[in-house]
Amino acid sequence: MKNILLNIILGISILPAFSQKDGDTTINRKDALKIFFDCAFCDEDYTRQEVQFVNYVRDRKEAQVHVMVTSQRTGSGGTEYTFHFLGQQEFKGINDTLTFISNSNNTRDEKRQGQTRSLKLGLMKYVARTPLAKQINISYSIRNNEEVKEDKWNSWIFKTKLGGYASGEQSYQRSNFSSSISATRITSEWKYEFDIDYSKNHSSYETSEGILKDNRHSESIDGLIVKSMGNHWSTGGEFEINSSTYRNYDINLTLAPGIEYDIFPYSESTRKQLRILYMPGVEFNRYTDTTIYNKTEEFLWVQRLEMAFEIKQKWGSVSTSLSWKNYFHDWSINNLNLFTSMNVRITKGLQFSLGGGASLIHDQINLPKGIATDDEILLRRRELATSFNYFFHFSISYTFGSIFNNVVNPRFGGSGSYYIMY
Fold first, then answer.
1. Fold held by 2-139
2. For 245-329, where are the E strands, in sequence order?
């Protein structure tokens, strides 16, 4: 039923009217449904202009309906947007879920139109229980059924990209060129992803001692094949072939099978997931320069264990991943990596965000022998020895005032609408 409604929604128009007399009753803005629209990637200005029969509140606890939108990529390169309608106050326990799927060829305008149509459709069951329902008119046009044709590409999606940039001034120049080719095929049973990437960077700096130049390039080919084994298990494998002047690799080849278990069903992945992935494998390296271990090439056995947790709820979201990698011939050569992010609505108007990551690095088997020169250090021409790295950010914000925020006014631009480059 939901799919049928989503198909006909393309022709739906919902016409609100305010301050209209209905017998002896005046329908005003105060009678409109209060919603908290929780979508970080939606065009909220467009939504407010197109959906004017509700009140948008800043605090989720003031809302009668919390609309939480999540997304995930589809096999065709598009995006599936899931609208979770969560009733609150007098609508507590009245929930619903609708989806809108955009394809890779949709423009930004087409995507926001589809998102807005799904929002309108999902809100109707709540609006119908408010005084404003008498001022809502719904109409639709039935579209001719399109002929279903066989997919000659068999679900394969290909993408190519060429890009570059250049910048400079009297004593400094920098340029970059990159290209990529990708092929993907995603079905409910299988997942195939293949990528080829190339990047070249050039920089030059004029100093009192002459001109310093930095030329770097990297190439990579990688692939992933995954087979679904039910609603919790999957198995597959990946391969990677890399070359990098920065990382001292003429060739870095990795081949690893793997198995994954998600404690929550994969069908709930847009709201919550707790995945455990184990991948043993083999690695072959040929180095540009002799390494600190006096190697020019070597064949190694390696393993990787990853855990990832993510949850999105009305109060906010949490995402954490932990990964461990080590070489079998010497377990002291290892790498431990932690990343986390959190966005929490503490109370009315008060929101706290933090994120960061850290790594304990003891697996730099590729470092070239010898001491890095000042030029290599300053220009980051090559990877440098380190036992750790980290980053961290946080923010806390408090907003107060009117709980309603319905008006869009684009005059004279606004924050982020333009900038000056220095």
1. Rossmann fold (3.40.50)
2. 249-262, 272-287, 297-313, 316-327
pLDDT digits (tens, 9 = 90+) for 157-198: 888 999 999 999 988 899 999 999 999 888 888 999 999 999
Q: Which single residue is written with the structure tokens 């209209």?
A: 20
Q: What is the pLDDT of residues 76-86, one digit of tens each?
A: 677 888 899 99
CB 126 within 8 A of CB 107: no
* Multiple choice CATH, 229-398, 3.30.70, 2.40.160, 2.20.25, 1.10.3470: 2.40.160
Rg (CA), the chain: 27
Measured in residues, the chain has a length of: 422
Give the torsion through C-alpha atoms of 280, 284, 290, 291, to 10 deg. Answer: -10
Burial 236-260 (b: 16+ CB within 10 A, else e): bbbebbbbbbebbbeebbbebebeb
Q: Which residues belong to CATH 3.40.50 in the chain?
A: 2-139
DSSP secondary structure of 149-201? ---TTTTEEEEEEEEEEEEEETTEEEEEEEEEEEEEEE-SSEEEEEEEEEEEE
Distance of CA 129 to the CA centre of its chain: 36
For 50, phi then psi, to 5°, come to -90, -30
Three-state SS for 376? helix
Residue 290 has pLDDT above 80, yes or no: yes
Residues of the chain with CATH 2.40.160: 229-398
CA distances from 308 to 141, 271, 272, 398 (A): 45, 14, 10, 30
CB 12 within 8 A of CB 100: no
Model confidence, pTM: 0.67
What's the CA gap between 242 and 252, in Å, rounded? Answer: 5
The single-letter code of the amino acid at 197 is D
End-to-end Cα spacing for the chain: 54
**DSSP strand E in 39-189: where?**
54-56, 65-73, 79-87, 95-102, 137-139, 156-169, 172-186
